[in-house]
Amino acid sequence: MTDEKQGQKKESNIRAVIEPNSIAVIGASRNPSKVGYSVFKNLIASGYTGRIYAVNPNAESILGVKCHKSVLDIPNKVDCAIIVVPAEYVNDTLEECGKKGIKGAIVISGGFKEVGEFEREEELKRISRKYGMAVIGPNCLGIVNRKKHIDSIFLPMYKMKRPLLGKISFLTQSGAVGSTILDLLGESNIGVSKFISYGNAAVLDESDLLRYLREDKDTSVVIMYIEGVKDGRKFYEELRKTTLVKPVVVLKAGKGALAAEATKSHTGALAGDYKVFQSMLRQAGAVEAECLPELFNLAKIFIQPLPKGERVFVLTNGGGEGVLTVDAIEKSGLKLAEISAKTRAKLKRKMPPHVVVGNPFDITGDADSKRYAEVLKEIVKEDGIDAIIVITLFQTVGLGSEVVNTVMEADNATDKTIVSVATGGEYTQSLLRIIESSGVPAYTSPSEAIDSIAKALWYYRKRRQREGEYA
After folding, report:
1. In sequence order, what are the beta bridge partners of 216?
2. For site-directed labelling of 182, which of 160, 232, 346, 348 has its Cα 20 to 30 A away?
3. Is the peptide bond before 20 cis (omega within 30 degrees of 0)?
4. Is the backbone peptide bond immediately before 138 cis, with ω within 30 degrees of 0?
5. Are 123 and 134 contacting, i.e. CB atoms less than 8 angstroms apart?
6. With respect to CATH, is domain 160-303 assigned 3.40.50.2000?
7. Domain ranges within the chain, ordered by starting residue
8. d(CA 296, CA 294)
9. How does residue 112 score in pLDDT terms, banded at 50, 70 and 90?
């Protein structure tokens, strides 16, 4: 078989894992305390419309679905097997999957190289190669494909909120880290296309999955949590190609010597030299997140149109918040936008006498949603502005929840980057969630918003530079 045909076969088999039309859960359980029960229940509850099969030699049925003694007893074709049996039985199970003609598998079970069982993992690889199976895992959390209504994550839905359908896809080496980000995205009403926890990456590694997401039309942004990579050169090449067509945000763990050692007992990964990895990310055009909160913040900013320059306009009903935003702008290297004389004159006529037109534009604490709308209507048309920050102190008496629609309407009226900033408790957070559900990123501090815009601008400029090099 030629390299081209082998590559096409591998891509087809990856789709069998992430976009299957039929799934067998091997190790499905009747016991609610078992992982096999949660995986099977979540798959059903997610509304998956393909065929679902349960495999358990000790059960007649699970959750109303007939059980098969072995995957070989299933009379119909199976695209993907989700394996949740004890580690010592995984390879025999995978062998049966190969004989059945199954092209993809997700091995959730742990107990491989992360605990020193290197030969067990090597055997898993040999079986995968023998049958040409695409395998995610072992030692992983599972996957989510919102468009296909697939949820094979073994964490209960009442403990971890699932996100809406969206354009962000998440690759994570750590299921624990992945689950927290997924929960935050769900709580914030930010949509997700695909979530893939790949664990030890015995067969399909981060590079294979990144290549898949590059070609995936339902993914606009890729975010990644990485402890180590299997093949640095391969990863660099896939990353470099991907960032030319869509943003990739990477959080690297295991930066120091102690943390690098810890990764070995987690996913069995070799963390490598962080400075080299950091340099590689920049050369490839990927955006680095420094911590988990920033990974979450950056995922949101890339939902918006990319800023084309550093000129920022700040609209606020609280002077202090405006000053803090200016501090963040100066620190980041961005600039305050200049408002044209024509627009200044229009805004002055529309504002009450005590409001001074400027940037930051403090429309004062008595502002209502109408005042916000009057300003945004003019500002979105200004050529000299690249990004707009709308700060709302929802605690003021005159500002009602209708300002949420004002922000959404402004976002729909322009291709500029627009973000929302509001600090406060439950009432404020509830309104921010509504804003974010419309595709406008919401932040709880000016510095978070500015830092995110600055990194989005870096990506835009880096991508334009590289496009010029390849033109």
Report:
1. none
2. 232
3. no
4. yes
5. no
6. no
7. 1-142, 160-303, 311-463
8. 5
9. very high
Alpha-carbon gap, residue 66 to 312, rounded angstroms: 60
Q: Give pLDDT tens digits for 307-340.
A: 999 999 999 999 999 999 999 999 999 999 999 9
CATH homologous superfamily of 1-142 equals: NAD(P)-binding Rossmann-like Domain (3.40.50.720)
Instruction: Tell me the C-alpha to C-alpha distance, in Å, between residue 372 and each of 306, 365, 406.
Output: 23, 12, 7
Please say whether the beta carbons of 352 and 381 come within 8 A.
Answer: no
- Gap between the Cα atoms of 229 and 313, Å rounded: 40
Measured CA to CA, the distance from residue 152 to residue 106 in angstroms comes to 9
Q: Which amino acid is at 190?
A: I
Q: For the chain, percent helix, then strand, then coil, each to nearest 5?
A: 45, 20, 40
Q: How far apart are CA 260 and CA 270, in angstroms?
A: 7
The C-alpha atoms of residue 443 and residue 391 are separated, in whole angstroms, by 9
Which CATH superfamily includes the segment(s) 311-463? Answer: Succinyl-CoA synthetase domains (3.40.50.261)
**β-pair partners for 367:** none
Place of tokens 């695909």: 194
Residue 258 predicted with pLDDT over 60: no
Do the beta carbons of residue 313 and residue 375 sit within 8 Å? no
Residue 145 in tokens: 């494909």
The position carrying tokens 């595709």 is 439
Q: Which residues pair with 53 in a beta bridge?
A: 24
Strands, E assignment, 84-220: 104-107, 134-136, 142-145, 150-151, 165-172, 192-197
Q: Where residue 10 falls among pLDDT bands split at 50, 70, 90?
A: low
DSSP state of 413: T
Q: Which two tokens stand for residue 432?
A: 């921010």
Whole-model pTM? 0.91
Dihedrals phi, psi of 221, to nearest 5 degrees: -135, 140
